[in-house]
Amino acid sequence: MAKVTAGYRCGECGWATPVWVGRCKECQAWGSVAETSATASGTRATAPRASALRISQVGADEARGLPTGIGELDRVLGEGLVPGAVVLLAGEPGVGKSTLLLEVAAAWARRGRRTLYVSAEESAAQVRRRADRTDAVTDDLFLAAESDLATVLGHIEELSPTLLVLDSVQTVSVDGTDGVPGGVTQVREVTNALVRVAKRRNMAVLIIGHVTKEGAIAGPRTLEHLVDVVLSFEGDRQSGFRMVRASKNRFGPADEVGCFEMTERGIAQVLDPSGLFTSTQGEPASGVAVTVTLEGRRPLLAEVQALVTPSAAPSPRRVTHGIEGSRVAMALAVLQRRARVKTHHRDVYVSTVGGVRLADPGADLAVAIAVASAAADWRPASRFAALGEVGLSGELRRVPGTARRLAEAERLGVKVALVPKGSGASSTRGLRVIAVGTLAEALDTVWLELTDHARAVSDRRAWQEKGAAT
Q: Which residues bind ATP (predicted)?
């Protein structure tokens, strides 16, 4: 017989140790090290149940997705939900995870597919009230309020659904397993059981997961490895705009984004979200610049607004909303050093429109132009878009997906676009493309070509003299 040796292993990262410790030395997680056993000798080979097939003999139709009825979610998943796939949807409390998946379950059931929605956090009556509000009541949608895994598996055996929605994995418990619901061991056991039943019954599973205050998915790290697809549901509570973003997808692209809007009637799809992130005013204003950002592979037109005011405090304020403060601080430093736009004695406020978050470096040029426009209090004569990453030496760097960005800008009526030199973009019938090499050159182009020439030259000279004096 093989000799059995005892050991301890971390449930988060798999790090092994011969003695118990309270904190994993690999991932620094507390309370994740548990006792395990392993055999000193290797595992003996057994006869396989079926012979291995040539890859050309394996059918691919079983991995083809079925439409959920929610187009934006299908966009993120690839083709839709693949039978037997396990999908994890994580997000902050109150962002609308339960509402979204309830509508997905209803849309799936309306196509004649039996669906089981298991709520481990709310009662059946509470879920029914939400279904009435979002028009998610249909005959093929079954509802169960259970928090015991064995009972959930019993419902699956009884109903044989093609889709299971579990809300949420951190609130379901397993009898006979150490730990409390939501702990490392319990979450791992629940997920393992759902993955096994999903593959055996060829049933799609949607799991709702909680996140920590740092934004990471709560539970063991192995949770993300066990499931087939990991989606994050993002959005600001003060804004109705929501995004579903894929960080792992075994059946489709892992860089796609779906757009939604929270309304009184539930969550609605936003097929053309670019209009949400730009202001409706017709005339260009000072301190405003438009850029085209890439969310995954999707181009979105976004507007950056800046306000520069005199400061009475020893340390001027730097307030940002929707843009990383470090990127704005870098843009201010490059403006002051390379373009003589002095803001060290002024308060600077930079914000986006519609609650969009710009993490794309391609928005650097728009941020710099918006701040320079606000500092000089001038406005361009026409609307334009600015694309480009700003380097510390003031040079402009190319950004990926320039052709897609410019096509989106032209579709939405933008007439002029500033791009870095070497981007390979050319003007079209409806869009004039201007290539610039540095931030100073971009400001000169905006100042002299996109405004009234006589007034621009006078304002530019006064602005430079004022900048040199300060």
A: 91-98
